[in-house]
Amino acid sequence: PPFTGPGADKEMYYEEKEFYYALGRAISQWADVEERLYLLYQKIINSDNFFGMSASYFSIINFSNKLDMVDKVLRASYFDDKILKKWDKISDRIRTKNIHRNHLAHYSTTFNNLKKPGDRIYLSPSISNINAALAKKTLSKKHTYNTRRLEELVPVFAKLAKDIHNFVLVLPYINATET
């Protein structure tokens, strides 16, 4: 829900607007990471049955499961150590950055008027989440995302998407008779 309304402090109104803009950009940039992962899957499967390939990939809702599937298909299709080492580096980064994506999707938006402008609106684990509270995650800077931190994720996600794309470009096609 918006924190600002009619007659609200203009500074707060713009802070909220910037926050949601940064959040939208970060989430949209992550969507590009997921799209590039599909392009990798598409290249590995190398099927003329585009609709079946698309249906199989997008029927998996959980991103970690999609990544595991792509990883297994790649390892079953390629045995070159250079390819696998390069993929390991990329997939490790995907897994690490997916933690941030998961936070963006599932953390609660919080407003704290006692903080300085620019830090008053942020994502954090729900205060109702006892697991996060016990792990002391609810207010730690590592587990909160203000506008600045959201903006920092955009180029990180963009580079990851680009690296996946570049990996797809250099990955050789596999002939069905080779596997």
Largest sheet: 2 strands, antiparallel
Average pLDDT for all residues: 89
Tally the helices: what do you get? 6
Unreliable spans are: none
Helix content: 55-70%
Structural category = mainly alpha
N to C succession of SSEs: HHHHEEHH
Estimated share of beta-strand residues: under 5%
Total strands: 2
Distance between the termini: 53 Å
Outline: elongated
Physical arrangement of strands within the biggest beta sheet: 1-2
Work out the radius of gyration: 20 Å
Structure description:
The chain is mostly helical. The protein has 6 helices and 2 strands. The protein has helices at 10-45, 50-58, 63-77, 81-106, 130-134, 147-170; strands at residues 108-111, 121-124. Helix 1 (10-45) crosses helix 2, helix 1 runs parallel beside helix 3 (63-77) and helix 3 (63-77) runs antiparallel to helix 4. The longest helix has 36 residues, at 10-45. It starts with 9 loop residues before the first helix and ends in a 9-residue tail after the last helix.
